[in-house]
């Protein structure tokens, strides 16, 4: 990665994160998340880094997990926000959690590599219809 960082570096991090999630690989995720990572799930629950990493042991299974249409917005070479669409085929303790969600990811570069500082997964809805005349 370049010393100054660039949006493509943050996008690379997002793709590596999605691949680790798709593999249900907490060990790989461990190297991608910042120490103070915070994750917000699609129902609004908030998880610490440690809680995010144990999800697979607690019954989370990703069968597919991809960030589509990612758009990176770099801020000063040490932070970037990536907004996209999360497409997942997922279950938690046997219940289906599959769907398409809006995802906002915050990436930071405290040293020589990008880390994921935050993931916020929320509803993805069509815009409301315009009012009738």
Rg computed from alpha carbons, rounded to a whole number of angstroms = 15 Å
| Helix percent band | 10-25%
Secondary structure tally, helices: 3
CATH level 1 class label: Alpha Beta
User: What's the order of the H and E elements?
Assistant: HHEEHEEEEE
Per CATH, what is the topology?
A: Nuclear Transport Factor 2, Chain: A
The largest pleated sheet is described as: 7 strands, mixed
Unreliable spans: none
If you had to describe this structure to a student in words, what would you say it looks like?
With 133 residues, the chain is an alpha+beta fold. Helix content is 20%, strand content 47%. The protein has one domain: Roll (Nuclear Transport Factor 2, Chain: A), CATH 3.10.450.50. Strands 1, 2, 3, 4, 5, 6 and 7 form a seven-stranded mixed sheet that branches. The model has no long low-confidence stretch (mean pLDDT 92).
